[in-house]
Amino acid sequence: MVFQQFNLYPHKTVLGNVMEGLLTVKKIKRDEAAERGRILLDRVGLSDKQDAYPSRLSGGQQQRVAIARALAMEPEVMLFDEPTSALDPELVGEVLSVMKELAQEGMTMLVVTHELNKGATPMELLLAGLGGCMGIDITMILDAFLDKITGIEIEAQGTRSEGMPKGFTAIDLIFKVDGDIPDYRIWKAIQMAEEKYCAVSASLSADIHPKLILNGVDTPRP
Asked: Which residues form the ABC transporter domain (predicted)?
């Protein structure tokens, strides 16, 4: 797993951080672990930093060390938790470049990220949040959630937004309600649904603009 805040040991060198799992978990001999670590650091473009400490590296370099450390364990699947959100904008590219190379080499990656640009595809970003990838339809999930919260049937209709990457569903939602229930309760339920299911998708591309139709009449949001 690759973490948002790198989670490198500050008292160990770059090579030492990559070797740690090999020595502690896999019980590999130190010489073999060091050789594998050097190969992986070269793979992420940091062969010249093997003796440096994390405090002497940029955020992008630290994250590439974290990727090398994860690769050292020879995983079948890699998990990335917001791998670029803690980086300065100019450093994001170097981390994404390494991730794209891994994808091209056949590595399966589960990625939670806000780093969705026009060039991104569902293949490059395997998972980008509910409603944001691979045609996942968030409206059915929202329907069930809102029904449970309000106790009445609520229909959430998703519409496709213009300009979204191929394979990504839209997140503009219209809620239709037929029932005797205070509209503020419904808006509160919608807000809870947004926070639970839509926050990631909203920041990926466009803002969510929910529209509530209560008993056939447009209801302004409080």
From this structure: 1-156
